[in-house]
Amino acid sequence: MIVFLKPETPRDSPEVERVLAVARKIEGVTARLHVVEGATRSLIEIYLIGRTAGIPTEIFDELDCVERVIRISEKYRIIGRHKGQVEAAGFVYEGLVFDQESLHVFPGLCAVDTAANVDLMFEAIARAGLTTGRMGAYKPRTSPYDFQGLGRTCLPWVFESAGRHGIRVVAMEVTHESHIEEINQALDEAGSPTGVLLQIGTRNAQNFELLKLVGQQQRFPVLFKRGMGITLEESLNACEYVASEGNSRIVLALRGMKTNLGDPHRNFVDVAHVPVVKRLTRLPVCIDPSHSVGRRDLAPDGLTDIHHVTAQGIVAGANMVLVDFHPDPAHALCDGPQALTLDELPHFLADVALARRCYEERRALAAGVCPRSA
Ligand code: PEP
Ligand code: MN
């Protein structure tokens, strides 16, 4: 059961205390308070977990600050989009809105290699008018003999360069608790010149202890990449782990599924799931054309498969694009074959903008033909 409070209710108010007091009196039920920071307002939602079937909704309905009460049977209590819940809340981070309406492109290095390349990358991003990018410092590699990432040593200059180029959010994977601590420390020491979107990679999609840790901290939002060999339901449950620990600022990334049936792409491209995730959850949805496709092959029409998959995801309503670029892909230490070059960034973004206009027109067309019931 979820009790939604009226938008203007302050978190530390006697009204909120009253709702919690009513909840506490019910045997076998625990109440958890969640603050959803939306683009224009923050909402308080109180989740009642346990034996809620026999609770009459009136005991909450009659309280002044309660907007509405809904019963939920679905598994995704926090991230799910429930009946009667029209808002897909999203969140604001470093001044940027991340929700099911917005679109952000995060181009960047799969793996940080040199300070010069980081600087060139951020400079190209800034020149293209973006304030978001990706930088992999901690790399989970299939082979123990492959480059494992520079780890904490690169953090000071990555953050300094991001700040100097006006980059507001950097997506960066973490695979261990110590990485979160190192990022916290390095950001503090650098004077917090940028923000970080903590990436949980596909290989850690069911690392429940890591999921709980990123859920327990409040400083950084989370970019969760779907598990490459598990069901969508299992990936959504993993996001629910993060949210149930207290951090519901999550973006879900579709990055392709491991199966040889997707050959010759590196993974089976799953952009068809963009609208599915938006329907089942309130999370913004990211696509990762680089890790889905895995190579920069050109189709006869002059566009790479990476461009095609990006456009397909955006036309389907994606809210974020995580994409590998590198100043010199032939010498990249990780995933060079799928990286686009810096001089290709303006065209890539123009193609993104075109696909986005197409999505907006498709929505307008759908609204005209078949108005959605509010
Ligand atoms: C990455 O984005 O660098 C990465 C390793 O992605 P994934 O976890 O999807 O393989
Ligand atoms: Mn990679």
Q: What gross morphology would you assign? A: globular
Q: What portion of residues is helical?
A: 25-40%
Mean pLDDT: 94
Which ligands accompany this protein?
A: phosphoenolpyruvate, manganese (II) ion
- In angstroms, what separates the terminal alpha carbons? 22 Å
The ordered string of helix (H) and strand (E) elements is EHEEHEEEEHEHEHEHEHEHEHHEH
**How big is the Rg?**
21 Å
Q: Mind summarizing the main beta sheet?
A: 8 strands, parallel, barrel
Strand content: 15-25%
Number of alpha- plus pi-helical segments: 11
Class per helix and strand makeup: alpha/beta
How do the strands of the widest beta sheet line up side by side?
Answer: 7-8-9-10-11-12-13-14
Give unreliable regions as ranges: none
The counted number of beta strands is 14
Features:
8-stranded parallel barrel, binds phosphoenolpyruvate, 374 residues, binds manganese (II) ion, globular, single chain, 11 helices, alpha/beta, 4-stranded antiparallel beta sheet
Structure description:
This protein is of the alpha/beta class. The protein contains eleven helices and 14 strands. An eight-stranded parallel β-barrel has the order 7-8-9-10-11-12-13-14, surrounded by six helices. Strands 2-3-1-4 form a four-stranded antiparallel sheet, covered by helices on one side. A two-stranded antiparallel sheet has the order 5-6. Helix 6 crosses helix 7. The longest helix is centred in the last third of the chain and has 25 residues. The radius of gyration is 21 Å and the shape is globular. The chain starts with a strand and ends in a 5-residue tail after the last helix. The mean pLDDT is 94. Bound molecules: phosphoenolpyruvate (PEP) and manganese (II) ion. Phosphoenolpyruvate binds next to loops.
